Amino acid sequence: MAARPPGGAASADDDRAAHARAERRRQILEAAKEVFAEAGYHEASINAIIERAHIARGTFYLYFDGKAAVFDALLDEAMRELRARITRIDVEDPAAPPPHLQLRDGLVRVLDYVLGDRLLATILLSGTTATEAEAANRAGAFFGEVRSVIRTALEQGIQMKLVRPCNVEVTSAALLGLVRGVVEHLVTTASPPAATEVVAEMIAVALRGVLNA
Amino acid sequence: MAARPPGGAASADDDRAAHARAERRRQILEAAKEVFAEAGYHEASINAIIERAHIARGTFYLYFDGKAAVFDALLDEAMRELRARITRIDVEDPAAPPPHLQLRDGLVRVLDYVLGDRLLATILLSGTTATEAEAANRAGAFFGEVRSVIRTALEQGIQMKLVRPCNVEVTSAALLGLVRGVVEHLVTTASPPAATEVVAEMIAVALRGVLNA
Amino acid sequence: MAARPPGGAASADDDRAAHARAERRRQILEAAKEVFAEAGYHEASINAIIERAHIARGTFYLYFDGKAAVFDALLDEAMRELRARITRIDVEDPAAPPPHLQLRDGLVRVLDYVLGDRLLATILLSGTTATEAEAANRAGAFFGEVRSVIRTALEQGIQMKLVRPCNVEVTSAALLGLVRGVVEHLVTTASPPAATEVVAEMIAVALRGVLNA
Amino acid sequence: MAARPPGGAASADDDRAAHARAERRRQILEAAKEVFAEAGYHEASINAIIERAHIARGTFYLYFDGKAAVFDALLDEAMRELRARITRIDVEDPAAPPPHLQLRDGLVRVLDYVLGDRLLATILLSGTTATEAEAANRAGAFFGEVRSVIRTALEQGIQMKLVRPCNVEVTSAALLGLVRGVVEHLVTTASPPAATEVVAEMIAVALRGVLNA
DNA sequence: CATGAATGAGTCTTCATTCAT
DNA sequence: CATGAATGAAGACTCATTCAT
For residue D1, is pLDDT > 60? Predict the structure, then answer.
C-alpha cells in the first residue's frame, strides 16, 4: 500500500498525481505531528489525526499502514534532518575552519532546525520513552549515534591536547544531556532567544564551565 | 478508596492491621515500579502489575484508585526522595562546608539514590513525556524545581563572582540536562562506575568545561 | 449501472462497442471466477478481482453493481449451463432412447461440463452455504430444482415398476447428495478419471447399490 | 486466557466456580451456534453472538479468543460427537453383530445426533466452505476421515465378496455425498421422519440401489 | 478484606462503494 | 468510458474499572 504506482516514463498526469499524493501525505504528517507533539504517541488517536487533517478514516490508511507508521515517518524525518546538520568535526583538512567554529556552526544549524520545527523536535525527544518498541529503539539508536559523535570528538580533542583527559563515557553522556536539556528548554519556551546566542552559551559552558576565570 | 480505616485511638490490632496494609501497598508499588520501568506508563497493564504482585484484580483497587494513582505514588516517592537529597547550597552560614563540597555531596547523594533504585529513576525520567497529563505536569514541575535550584545557585555564584556572568536561563537548562544525561547513562548502563567518580567528572565539566587548561 | 447504452438501431459502431463491452465483462467474470473459487465469497475482495482482471476499481462498477452481482452472474452462468445439460427423462416418446441411456448421457454431459470448468463448479457447490442471502437462496433453489427432477424420475420409475417403491423424499435427497459428492470429489482431485467411467460407477451404485449380486 | 485456574486440590468453591464458568461457556456456545447456523461464519458477528447470549462484549473474550475460536469449539464439538458415533465396521470379532447391522446402528446413532442438534450439523456441513482457513481444513479433514472409513469398509467388503468390485475412490465419494445429502435434507426439513426409517432407506439405496428386483 | 467475573467505552483496521477528473 | 483517490460504515478486540460473593 501507500506505494507510488510503478511505471518507467512519467507523464504530466503522473507528475500531477504524484504531486497531489505527496501533498496529501504531507497534510497527514503535519496533522499527526501536532497530535503526537501534544499528546504523545500513546494518547494520540487516529481519530485526532484524521480530524485535524480533515480526511476520512480510510484515507489515512491509504497513505500510512497505521499509527506506528506515521510516527515512524515523523521520527525518520526529524532524524534525517538532524543527521544532515550534525557533522563530525574535521581536524585533518587544513582548509577546514578551526574546530570550535565547526562546532559552533553545527550547533547553530541544529538549533535553527529545532526552533523551526519545535513539534518535530518534541516528538523526537519523546521518542525514546514509552512508545512502541521499534520507534523507541530507532530514536534510542539515533541518540546513541549522536553521543558517539561527541565521544569521538572528545577522544580526538584529548589526543590533540585540546581537551583535558577525562572519562569520555560519562562526559559524552553529560554533553549529550546538556544539548538535550537546552533543546528541551527552547522547545518549551514561548519566545526563545536566537540560536546563535544560545549556542554561544552552550559552548561556553561545555568548553570552559561556569566558573569565573 | 484506599483510605486508612478511621478511628481515634490506635489499638494494637489497628497497628497490626495498618502494618499489614502498608506492606500490601508496598508490594503493589514494587510490582508496579518494575512494570512501569520496563514497559512505560501506557504499555504497562494492570494485569501485569497484579500478576507480579500476586494479588487479585479487585485487591489492587482497594489500595489504589487506578493506574494513574499508582504511577503518581511512584513518582511522588521518587520526587520525595530526591528532594530530600537536593539541598540549596548554603553560602551564608560560615559553619557550612565550602560551596563546591556542598555541591559534590549533594550530587553524590542523588546519584547514590539513583543507582540504588534505577527502576524508580527510569520512571521519573520517563515521567515528563507521553504520560497522562497530571503526572507529566507533576514530573515537569519537579524538574522545574530542580532547575530553579540550579538557577538560584548560578545567580548567587555570579553575585559572589564565583561564577562568570551568563544567561542563567540557558545555562540552568544546560546543567539540568547535563545531570539528566548522566543519570540516564547510569540508569541504562549494566555496570556503572561509582557515584563519587561520576560526580567528579560531572563537576569538572560543569565548572571548568572540557578544554585543556 | 452496467446497463447497455440505449438506442434502437444498432450501427456498426454500436456493434463494435457492444462487443468490446462484452469482452470486458467476460474478462472481469473470469477473474472473479478464479478469485471466488480460491477464496470463497467473503474472503474474496474486489481488490483481488480487479488486480487479476487488470482493470481499475471504478471500471469494475461500470460492469457490475457490486460484489454480489458478479457472484450472482457466475452462479447464473453455472446454473444456466447445468440446466441445459439436465433433462427430464422422457419415458413417453417411443423414439427416445431407453431411460437408463438418457440418464447416462445426461450425467456425462453434466460431469463433462463440471470437469471443463472446475472453478465454476466449485463456486456453485459453495454457493449454498455461508454467502449473502440472495445467492444462497438462488443456489439452494437450483439444487431444489435438481432434486425435483430426481424425485419426478423416481416417481415415474416407481409407476413403471422400474424402481422399487421407496420414500422419494429421502431417496431423492440421497441421490442428489451422491451426485454432489462425486462432483466435489472430481473438482478437488488433481487428475480425475474420465466422465464416462465415473458416470458408470455412479449409475451402478445408484441403480444396483454396492452389494454383490 | 479462558483457562481453568490451576491448583491441585479442588475445593468446593473451586468446583462451584468451575461449574459457573462451564455454564457461561456453554451459554456463549449455544448463542454462537444459533448465529453461525443462521448466518454462516462470515456473516456472523460477535455483536450478534453476545446479544443473543445476553453478555457484554468483554465477557465473550473472557471465554474465547475470538470469533474463530468459538467456531472452532463448535466444530470440534460436532466432530467429537460424530466421531464417537462413527465406528469402523468390525468383521473379525465373531461376537460382533453382522456387518449390515453394525452399519445400520452406526447410521442411526449419527442421524439421531444430527436430528438432536440440527444447528450444529448445519455448521459442520458449512464448515468446509468459505470459512477461515484453519476451520475449513479441520472440517475438510473430518470428512476426509469419514470417507476413509467408507473406503476401508468397501475394500473389506470387496475382499469378503460382499461388495461387488468397484472404483472405491468414486464410490466412497458417492456414498459420503449420499449421507451428506440426506443429513442436509433432514437438517433443513421442518418435521423430518424418524432416524430409523431414514436409515432404512439410505441403506437400501446404498446396498441395493433404486432398481426394482 | 480479598476475589475475579463481568462490563463496555474506546481504538484500530478493513473494504465495498462512490465520484470528480 | 476509464480511472483511482476518497469515503465511512462496520466489525474485531483490549483493558481499566466495578461489584456481588
Answer: no
Q: Which of A190-194, B178-182, C30-34 has the lowest mean pLDDT?
A: A190-194
Task: Tell me: pLDDT of B130 over 70.
Answer: no
- In eight-state DSSP terms, residue A209 is -
CB of C34 within 8 A of CB of C119? yes
CATH topology of domain A71-208: Tetracycline Repressor; domain 2 (1.10.357)
Give the nucleotide nearest to B67 (CA→C1'). F16
| Strand F nucleotides with an atom less than 7 Å from a protein beta carbon | 1-20
Q: Is chain C adjacent to chain B, meaning 3+ CB pairs within 8 angstroms?
A: no
d(CA A33, CA A71): 8
Contact predicate B99/B162, CB 8 Å: yes
Residue A181, all three cell numbers = 536539556
Q: Spell out the domain ranges in chain D.
A: 11-64, 72-208
Question: For residues B112 and B133, which has the higher predicted lDDT (pLDDT)?
Answer: B112
Question: Residue A151: its pLDDT value, please?
Answer: 96
Distance CA(C68)–CA(C40), nearest Å, equals: 12
With pLDDT > 70 as the criterion, what percentage of chain C qualifies? 92
CB hemisphere CA count around B72 (13 angstroms): 12
Nucleotide nearest to D5 (CA to C1'): E4
In this model, does residue B9 exceed pLDDT 60?
no
Identical topology for domains C12-64 and C72-208? no
Query: What does the radius of gyration of chain A's CA atoms come to, in whole angstroms?
Result: 20
Instruction: Report whether pLDDT(C3) > 50.
Output: no
Residue from D78, B66, D53, D40 nearest C131 by CA: D40
Q: Cα–Cα distance between D112 and A76 in angstroms, integer?
A: 65
Residue C132 to residue D43, Cβ atoms within 8 A: yes
Find the CB nearest A154 among B154, B173, B210: B210
Inspect the interface and report whether the beta carbons of C202 and D170 lie closer than 8 Å: yes
Give Cα C149 to chain centroid, integer Å: 15
Whether B60 has a pLDDT exceeding 90, the answer reads yes
- State the CATH class of domain D72-208: mainly alpha
- The share of chain A scoring above pLDDT 70, in percent, equals 90
Separation of alpha carbons B78 and B97, rounded Å:
27
Least trusted range by pLDDT, from A85-89, A101-105, B136-140, D190-194: B136-140
CA distance D207 to D137: 31
Q: What CATH architecture applies to the domain C12-64?
A: Orthogonal Bundle (1.10)
- Name the β-bridge partners of A211: B163
E5 C1' closest Cα residue:
D59
Question: For position C138, what pLDDT does the model report?
Answer: 86
Residues of A in Cβ contact (< 8 Å) with B209: 204-209
Say whether A163 sits in a helix, a strand or coil: strand
Question: pLDDT digit string (tens) for A10-68?
Answer: 566 667 777 888 899 999 999 999 999 988 888 899 999 999 999 999 999 999 999 99
Name the closest residue (CA) to the C1' of nucleotide F11.
D45
The dotted CATH code for A8-64 is: 1.10.10.60
pLDDT, averaged across chain C: 89
Region C182-208: mean pLDDT is 94
Q: What is the mean pLDDT of chain A?
A: 89
Residues 6+ apart with CB under 8 A from A191: none
Architecture of the D11-64 domain? Orthogonal Bundle (1.10)
**Taking the CA atoms of chain B, what radius of gyration do you get in angstroms?**
20
Measured in degrees and rounded to the nearest 5, phi and psi for residue B103 equal: -60, -50
Helical H segments across D44-194, by residue range = 46-53, 57-63, 67-85, 99-116, 118-126, 133-159, 168-188
Residue D31, CB-side half-sphere exposure with 13 Å CA sphere:
19
